[in-house]
Design brief:
Elements lengths: L22 E9 L3 H9 L4 H4 L3 E3 L13 E8 L2 E11 L5 E7 L5 E11 L2 E11 L8 H20 L30 E3 L4 E3 L4 E10 L7 H16 L10 E5 L9 H9 L5 E5 L6 H14 L5 E9 H10 L16 E3 L8 H6 L4 H16 L3 H19 L13 H5 L7 E3 L2 E2 L9 E10 H6 L9 E9 L14 H14 L6 E5 L5 H11 L15 H4 L7 H15 L4 E8 L4 E8 L9 E3 L11 E2 L6 E9 L5 E9 L5 E6 L1 H5 L16 E6 L2 E6 L10 H16 L5 E6 L22 E5 L2 E3 L1 H8 L2 E5 L3 E3 L12 H7 L2 H10 L3 E2 H6 L5 E3 L4 H13 L3 H14 L1 H7 L1
Parallel strand pairs: 11-12, 11-13, 12-14, 18-22, 19-20, 23-26, 28-29, 29-30, 30-32, 31-33, 32-35
Antiparallel strand pairs: 1-7, 2-3, 3-4, 4-5, 5-6, 6-7, 8-9, 10-17, 13-17, 15-16, 18-21, 20-21, 24-25, 25-26, 27-28, 33-34
Helix pairs in contact: 4-5, 20-21
Amino acid sequence: MRFRRRSVPETLPVVVPPRRLSRPWALSVTVPATPERVHAYLTHAATMADWMVMHTGWPADPPGVVHGGSRFRQRVRLMGTPVEVRWTVRDAERPRTLWLDGTGPMGIEVGVYLSLAAGEGGTVVRLDGGVQGGPTDGPLGAMVARSLTDALRTSLRRLTAVDLTATGPVIGGPDDAASGRVRPPEKSGKIRHERTGIDLDPWTPVIVGAGQVSDRSSTDDPVTLAVRALREAATDAGRPGLLPMADTIGWVASVSWQYLSAGALIAEAVGATPTHTVQTSLFGGDGPLRLLNDIAAAITRGETSIALLAGAESAATAAAADRAGHPLNWPRQPDGTAPTRILGSDREPNNTPETDAGLVSPLHLYALIENALRARHGRTPQQHQAVITELWSRFADVAATNPYAWLPGPRTPADLATPGPVNRPVCHPYTKLLTANLQVNQASGLIVCSVRAATEAGIPQDRWVFPHAGAHASDAWFVTERDDLTASPAIGAIGRAILAHTGTTINDIRHIDLYACFPSAVQIAAAELGLPLDDPARPLTVTGGLTFAGGPGNNYAGHSVATLVSRLRADPDGFGLATALGWYLTKHAATILSAHPPRAGFRDIDAGLRLPRALRPAASSGSGGTLEAYTVTYHRDGTPATGIVTELGPDGTRIVRTADPASLLDGDPLRPFPRPAALTPVEVAWHGPVTVIRLNRPEARNVVDPLTARALQRAIGDFEADPDARVAVLTGTGPTFCAGTDPETAALGPIGKPLIAAVEGVAVAGGFALALAADLIVAADDALFGLPEVTEGLVAAGLTRLARRLPRAVALELALTGEPMPARRLHDLGLVNRITAPGKAYGQAIDLAVSIAAHPAAAVLLSQRAVAECGGDDLRRKG
């Protein structure tokens, strides 16, 4: 296939570029600003993070103002592959030129030659240059050049959107001309922390202001409340004028009113012109800490200087309006409005058995987990009620001292245990005052910046609180597929990760706020982190929790951090810990903070990449099960409505069904019993840079059922996200690779790192589709591959991949006859890479993976992507 060369814009270069590369580009745009302002912006090379779409980070210090001869390194994404480019500034004549020569992996040379001239409507920016060398001189060159040209075209369009017209200093400008952006200054030296005498990296993240709003009379929408909280944060920092200087605005998605881009509304309200607006996924109480950790890491990389983080709910106002039948005239934004980035992901929170049984709300699931905890500890209902009401009473005591609490005031254990008009039973064993309080009007705001920006803004160091480390992870997504309802391996992994990074132990943490939506969530988090429930010197909350302090929806942890900031300023050598969670103990985040400078640079750690997760299949029916946990829902008048139980079958399957509520409330239905072992349908092991993913259902010939499919997708996703994992081997336990997939099981999508299939026995139906998803196949001599679906009146999965990798006639033979084909023939046709003796495919695949992993990572990934983009047929024709 040949591509027509794109037409070159008619705009002539203002200055003839220094050289012509073998695969050139020539692009131009008009930027609405003077050449002096545009040149000053471009020659502050750290701004490449704002307008160059390929940019992913800086491997060292972000560059400052550049001039002829300057050198710096940048991480970019080339055709989806992360690579490093080393730039040399050939010329930076003000205000006419900025010429950059770059070298990338595998001998690739890049020229980015910008020339500027005054024109109608602003400055004409012409970008000449090109790419040559290495693989770009071969058949893949046109594809690489086309990808880069498209990315640079988009980058220039982004450049036109940068506000360079407002007043303010232009960094690098000749005469303090005006620009609307506060740009990251050159990282030129350490900054002394006066109290401790520690010299800080200028890109160390620090919280300088925290504000909260709790307003019972307000009719404001969430963004308006959030702006009020941010103004409080600016006052708290001692710099009321700080908000317009923000280059990043982060928003914790509101549940009570959903915005297309709340960051844009906040920017307009405070007069900021941010380059980045980041919003958390729609549902998830982990959002505030995910956002804080993400922005702190961005500051560490030099991508952000001053960030405003906010979240709010106006649920009380929304509920009142709904009861009165009054419409809410809150802001609506035009279609197409969007933040620059969404942090986190949303997916269905419940599986089919949970939905069938009505086990779908947080209240139901946390109540079910609560009874599972009671069974685990061998308590009677009365004994366990005493534990959770005493715990919640201590939380109420803390809320009584919190000026922002929605329900302040002490509550005794008896108050919480006794049903009444304001404390009706809602879901056994919970009364209303043991659950999250949803109807509040509350907001929090944080100002987070680099210590360089804080110093230049004149913010006193006694306002500084440092994020030391953050982490996130998730447990098995569906509650009823977890091995143990009373455990959270993800919280334990997060805790170990951040404590190890900060060099602390849990005993060093004096100020703690565990996410407290329901008592079961606190008990499980405390157990995983090694915290006692009843230490009077170290309560497990600084706010009072979601029942008494408030902050439901997604933003509770925003209030946790804002409160910890004031606590840590008063205890400058102490440490604080906040945790957060989303859905049903599903996705988690945590952050350690202190007013004492960190011993190591901040890290946002994905603690779930190598976290083992045993699973159980869930079903809506079954026989022979033993009661594991239960709950009973109630009508508003306090009468029982529905019973919901989970039972463990003899094979370990968890049965989820409804039951007669009276039978569950009569005495104690829970009894000790031996728990059947959980399953590990996909085993993952790590051998240096090689990840081994093993289908582990030998009794079912490794057929991929829905539970296995979710585990496989997770294993592949973790492999792709793991920076230390370079190559993966996919294989099966026992004599069979994979004899098929469940009809509901989705096939694997494209994988961004090399994947090798090690095939023994048969790879048929969906098993063949899995092998086709791999980049390379190593097969035993007696292995068979086939697509028998046509014999059952079905269309096989993987036909598109089959057609790409085999001659048309052979692909049709496999697809239309349903007959298997031996590995030897497919090796001769080029589909199978290596043939081994029976039983040796796995070992040969490991050897192949090790040999690939020995090569430079960028070269491997770029080569893989280039071949995938081009396609085998194109390579044969062009070669």
